[in-house]
Amino acid sequence: MRAHQRAHRQVTRVEYALPQEAASAGRARRLTSAFLTRSRGHLTEVDAERVDDATLIVSELVTNATQHGRSPCRLRLEVSDHHVTVEVHDANPEGPRVLRPSTERDSGRGLAMVRHLAARLEVVGSGRRGKAVRAVLTLRHLEPLPIARARPRPTALQRPRNLARS
């Protein structure tokens, strides 16, 4: 019989209610930056680049929610040893659309940027009660490292003299 031990996942969460107004995006950016830069002794620190990515994502998602969400929105942030999760809830059950880039429009690029920055972007619908748009960022230390090129094994002539032969 084999016993499985489950690793306890350390997570820190916070949730903010934001009014349906343009100023909510700026407030959400400040709240996100403050939350992600707060010291968490038991968790991996979030580096400055990921804080910038998360605040950009929050700005885009909260802007969409306040413009199209039909209600105030809720911003939920979560930090674990592996991910930063940004989730924005609003009352509109219709999911957001990623538009094709156009030089003729002043807007419509936000979700494409979010999709580029996030490891995962998903819409979780709750029917008549609205939806949540969730973006998950992988912390840098978990991203795949570049593949190192294999070095050729040294021949006897190239082998350093201080190494003993086996």
Number of helices: 3
**Strand-pairing-aware structural class:** alpha+beta
User: What is the averaged pLDDT score?
Assistant: 79
Largest sheet: 5 strands, antiparallel
Question: What do these coordinates show?
Answer:
This protein is of the alpha+beta class. It has three helices and five strands. The chain has helices spanning 23-37, 48-68, 110-117, and strands at residues 11-18, 73-80, 83-90, 120-125, 131-138. Strand 2 and strand 3 (83-90) form a beta hairpin. The chain is globular.
Question: What is the topological layout?
Answer:
Blueprint: E1 11-18, H1 23-37, H2 48-68, E2 73-80, E3 83-90, H3 110-117, E4 120-125, E5 131-138
Antiparallel strand pairs: 1-2, 2-3, 3-5, 4-5
Q: Main attributes?
A:
166 residues, alpha+beta, five-stranded antiparallel beta sheet, 3 helices, globular, disordered C terminus
Brief account:
With 166 residues, the protein is α+β, with helices and mostly antiparallel strands. The chain has helices at 23-37, 48-68, 110-117, and strands at 11-18, 73-80, 83-90, 120-125, 131-138.
